[in-house]
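Minutes, project check-in

Agenda point 3 was the complex the collaborators sent over. CS summarized: four entities, 726 residues total, and the question is how they sit relative to each other. Sequences were read into the notes so everyone works from the same version.
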Amino acid sequence: MPKAPTVYDVADLAGVSIATVSRVFRKPHKVSQATKDRVDAAVLDLGYVPSGSARSLAARRAGAIGLCFPDFDGIDGGPAPIAYADGKVIARLDPPEDVEPSGNLYISEVMLGTEIEAWRHGMAVTIAVARGERGNEIFDNLAGRVDGMVTLSQTVPEGLLAHIARRIPVVVIAGPRAGDDYDHIGTDNVAGMEAMTKHVVDVHGVRDVAFVGGPADSPDDRDRFEGFRMGLLAEGIEAPSEPLLRGDFTRGHGRMLGRRLVEAGPVPRALMCSNDQTALGILDALLAAELRVPEDVIITGFDGIDASEMSRPRITTVRQPMRELGRAAVDTLLRRLGDPLMPPQTRTLPVTVLLRESCGCLP
Amino acid sequence: MPKAPTVYDVADLAGVSIATVSRVFRKPHKVSQATKDRVDAAVLDLGYVPSGSARSLAARRAGAIGLCFPDFDGIDGGPAPIAYADGKVIARLDPPEDVEPSGNLYISEVMLGTEIEAWRHGMAVTIAVARGERGNEIFDNLAGRVDGMVTLSQTVPEGLLAHIARRIPVVVIAGPRAGDDYDHIGTDNVAGMEAMTKHVVDVHGVRDVAFVGGPADSPDDRDRFEGFRMGLLAEGIEAPSEPLLRGDFTRGHGRMLGRRLVEAGPVPRALMCSNDQTALGILDALLAAELRVPEDVIITGFDGIDASEMSRPRITTVRQPMRELGRAAVDTLLRRLGDPLMPPQTRTLPVTVLLRESCGCLP
DNA sequence: TAGCTTAATGTATGCGCATACATTCCATTG
DNA sequence: CAATGGAATGTATGCGCATACATTAAGCTA
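CS then shared the predicted structure for the full assembly.
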């Protein structure tokens, strides 16, 4: 790859000044057609592509927004995939046990939403996962190259986030306000879980309901538990002050909790889980112990990931509008860029309760 | 947001030169501890975050790779999502008819794979969809701000791609070599479809097999049809020179084809489709016509999207390692950056045949 | 102690572009 | 025909950083 041509090269070849070359790209209407044609020809001839770095520097805007996630799954991917040359035939007829977990639908959907909304405003999206020991560095790096940042809560330490926020606007997804000054986008965890709880009690007539939580420091988990309690209280049922058990939001941990429940004696009539992965893990364990779902035990989840629809029975859950989260975050970010003095925003998106087999609503 | 501090500000406050500030970030080992401490303090004090644009410009590398997709779904998203303020409770108990289509698992997975491999090499990923009339401009813009580009074939016109490739390395996913000089990452369409064909003939004893193709200009489709023919020939069955029908890879079009098949008279005993969406559409139509799958008609797909696992019956299909595609693309891209003179690479990733209900393998 | 080496830091420059401002060229106008 | 104004283009500068090279200080050798 020979040295890339610059505005100077194009200007020389077209016999114009660099300002004119720049105008052909940025303000075409200010250049005569004849000149434009000569410049275009030179551009094609030389294979010129404007440098985004130089442009961003000179224009004082990056034209991109950053999206940074924590490393939910601890995926480091291992070495790059094995490949083989053309002609060698490999096809397996195995059952799909080797299919990788669908991973983070959540992240994927937020990404898609982010991209769509960014596109509508002519911006690119730069993504990075603050993964590993250099996670903070990754975050910092990303912040330096974008006009604003969307991040999930808990991605980096508060101090770093505050540091970044002095330079560019930051929108936090899924973390409720904690007295900070960031803009926040959340979903209605409380209302969702409250509605789900009432459904289980009202429609299925169950009063022996327990809550299986997630990490104690998760704001989402806290809100969902709060919704659970409100649901119970509204039904005149005494509400516990703590979840029956806590997992770490992974399916594996959910399985462990399920086994523990089975061993500990009679399993509650209904288990309301703080997320889908936990619900799926518990389902795995209960089915393995020959319990029937929903006949013996009702299970519900939260999130609405695709995997919740692929289990048998399928999981009744509360769907978060994941793609909308991304879109709303970008929308808010761009508003903030337009009006830096606007007071801190908090937007809460509505959730949807999805009734399926695991609560007994579908056969 | 007041004017962001620069190296100069930090240097002044710390009483050092800008070179030293820069070194604290880039070559910390070349700075004495005492100096480093003073600089760090100034950085925190001022809220300094290095400008990525300036860094990229000066260092002549962006530290990011680009990922550009075509607009598969024609999603423009419409206006940003409705939100409501805190406290207002909305939760619905409707069936999930409003759940948005799972969209592009394919794209999502490639994104995730790309990000993982980029992370392993300390690079960020900038994504953009070449969507709408300004698609080419988006692509061009993206190209200017990254060190290399991963793109799906058919994303932009060949001329533009060639133009970009003069400046930065380009890796094309899913498009087989067409005599061009790009690096390519593909999946083994031929072997996958051949194995699937043999399976249907051998295991299920079906000889009345037809192929439902996709767009005639799709290289993937061409290869899959070729695999189909090879499978038949290997079984001693005469192979057609053209697909029985062609769709456009969408489910809607698949439904139409399905209805047409039903009307046209006896439906072949097995329909092998060039992608999952088409298979799902045909399944919809056959079930609507009261035909039984797989008892009356066997249906198979290709891709392994999640939706293929959520239908009833679930679709037997050939799974592409989508995440691995992204990883392999980045891997190849970085090799290319390391050795620009390396001959053009082509890597083909193995596929997996997933046997499920729609061919009769699972009850 | 002169001469040499190495560590630490500073100086000066350029990366490639956008843009404020200056200049040139015409077409109008009175 | 001189004065005016707008369109098209050019000149000059700075965006914020990395880095080659220069400089200084300090330790070490013979």
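Noted in discussion: Residues 82-102 of chain A have pLDDT under 50 and may be disordered.
Follow-up: revisit at the next meeting once the mutant set is ready.
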